[in-house]
From TrEMBL:
Residues 270-293 are annotated as: Disordered. It comes from Kitasatospora atroaurantiaca. Its cofactor is heme b. GO terms for molecular function: ferrochelatase activity; heme binding; metal ion binding; peroxidase activity. Keywords: Heme, Iron, Lyase, Metal-binding, Oxidoreductase, Peroxidase, Signal. Signal peptide: none annotated. This is Deferrochelatase.
Length: 399
């Protein structure tokens, strides 16, 4: 597919994270606040070549959820559900009433840059009786990685939904409406809420930070870069052409352990200065990291096990993902430690050439892994966007 993206497509756009991080954007969330519209009135069109929520802005809030089809839903029921959900998402993106099951939770708010993105898990194809349409990249599940501690009750699912907005009530309202509209056809499997920097919170547009305090998202790929579309959007099968694959991971950060490290040690774990995100090899935030650079004593400026070295495309055969993660904080665990970290979201053309090789290397060689626990996971095919009058997944369900 081509690499041209319209201004309409990129309105308020952003995409985030380092390989385990969050923040920053394709244009950055601050671009929304910098526009002429008040924050609550910013709209992101639901219809288009790609689904909204991939290239669009890093909103302040996210609701992530997965649904499982009810017994007997089949292809016809799934088609009915996707038509209903797509129509509702389009109305909410325009700031209109949800229609069916409108609950007035967000009655006084505008659209607030709302985006709703849908993905299909591998299990959906058998449940809906369309196994012949299962794309090869979903046929093989994500492998087990060293150190994984996955809760399967909070992983996978037939249908994946990402709802972003700059207001928490707007995002929750959308999820609640979709849940009610799915009654009898699909049931909620898991749900998680996350947050990012609120647009306008800084005095100038800048890359955000994750819960470890690191400037995060500097090297995320951007539209217009060579090979961007080929790295993010899938060639096929036919119903998926122009769509993508998304990997979701819930990654708990061991913040008590991390915060006990002195700042200079944290910087060596990451490979960047904490103050401004510049690589330890020198320069500013956007200066390319010099992986061969040395200190005066001959040691590597960026340590051999530093996160940015291990995760770099140059260290992984060019593997690249469009990361759009959000932080989360869900209170305390029984041992008194924080249940907080990252809701990692990464869009890519092929997870076997994107997420999988990078995560294998990170699990084996990244010094940051000592401060992380991967606790939930999912892989989903994200169909292309719907045209006006159409619905997401139409080519699959009517083809």
């Amino acid at each position: 597919m081509g690499e041209g993206f319209s201004r309409r497509t990129l309105l308020g756009s952003g995409a985030a994270g380092l390989a385990v991080g969050v923040a920053g954007g394709v244009l950055g969330s601050e671009a929304v606040a910098a526009g002429p519209e008040p924050l609550g009135r910013v709209t992101v069109p639901f219809h288009g070549a790609q689904q909204a929520g991939i290239l669009q802005g890093q909103q302040a809030r996210v609701q992530l959820a997965a649904f499982d089809l009810a017994a007997g839903t089949g292809r016809d029921g799934l088609r009915q559900l996707m038509k209903r959900w797509s129509g509702t998402a389009a109305r909410l993106a325009r700031g209109e009433s949800a229609g069916e099951h409108e609950n007035q939770i967000a009655l006084d708010a505008g659209p607030c840059a709302l985006t709703v993105t849908f993905g299909f898990g591998a299990s959906l194809f058998a449940e809906a009786g369309i196994t012949g349409q299962l794309p090869p990249a979903l046929a093989a599940p994500l492998p087990d990685f060293p150190g994984d501690a996955l809760d399967r009750a909070r992983s996978d699912g037939d249908l994946w939904v990402q709802i972003g907005a700059d207001d928490a009530l707007v995002a929750f309202h959308a999820l609640r409406v979709l849940q009610q509209q799915a009654a009898g056809l699909a049931a909620l499997r898991w749900q998680m809420a996350g947050f990012s920097r609120t647009p306008g919170a800084t005095d100038r547009p800048m890359t955000g930070r994750n819960l470890m305090g690191q400037v995060d998202g500097t090297n995320n790929p951007r539209p217009g870069q060579d090979g961007f579309a080929a790295k993010v959007f899938a060639d096929g099968p036919g119903w998926l052409a122009g769509g993508s694959y998304v990997v979701f991971r819930r990654i708990r950060m061991l913040l008590d352990n991390w915060e006990n490290l002195p700042t200079d040690r944290q910087e060596r774990v990451i490979g960047r200065r904490k103050s401004d995100g510049a690589p330890l090899s020198g320069g500013g935030e956007t200066t390319p990291a010099d992986l061969a650079g040395q200190n005066a004593d001959g040691t590597l400026a960026i340590p051999a096990d530093a996160h940015i070295r291990v995760a770099a495309p140059a260290s992984n055969g060019g593997a690249t993902m469009l990361r759009r993660g959000f932080s989360y904080q869900d209170g305390l665990l029984p041992d008194g430690s924080l249940d907080a970290g990252l809701l990692f979201i990464a869009f890519q053309a092929d997870p076997a050439r994107g997420f999988v090789p990078v995560q294998r290397k990170l699990a084996r060689a990244d010094s940051l892994s000592r401060f992380l626990r991967h606790e939930a996971s999912g892989l989903y095919a994200v169909p292309p966007g719907a045209p006006e009058g159409g619905y997401v997944g139409q080519a699959l369900l009517e083809g």
